[in-house]
Amino acid sequence: MGALAVVLITFFWLAVGVVGPFVLPKRIHDRGLIRVMLVLTAVCCYMFWLVGYMCQLHPLWGPRFNPKVLVAMRREWE
Fold it and tell me: What residue ranges are annotated as transmembrane (predicted)?
């Protein structure tokens, strides 16, 4: 399930960043600026999502328990 989410979100933001700039109409005055905005938006949104998702998968620190709680958990769960 986790790999599917990463692949789907990656393809979505890749489409926004790569296909989006080429779909713009030719008559737009600031076409180059809008292209840069689309690419930067795609990169920033994807990185923001990826960092948040990976931090949930592999946290830097876990819960801290009192040693008495750890002994009780070990005794009850075995």
Answer: 6-24, 36-54
Within 10 A of 14 (CB to CB), how many other CB atoms are there?
Answer: 13
Work out the burial of residue 61: count CB atoms within 10 Å of its CB; fewer than 13 is exposed, 13-18 middle, 19 or more buried: exposed
pTM over 0.85: no
Dihedral (CA of 60, 64, 70, 74) sign: negative
In this prediction, residue 58 carries a pLDDT of: 80
State the residue for tokens 């009850």.
76
Give the per-residue pLDDT at 43: 97
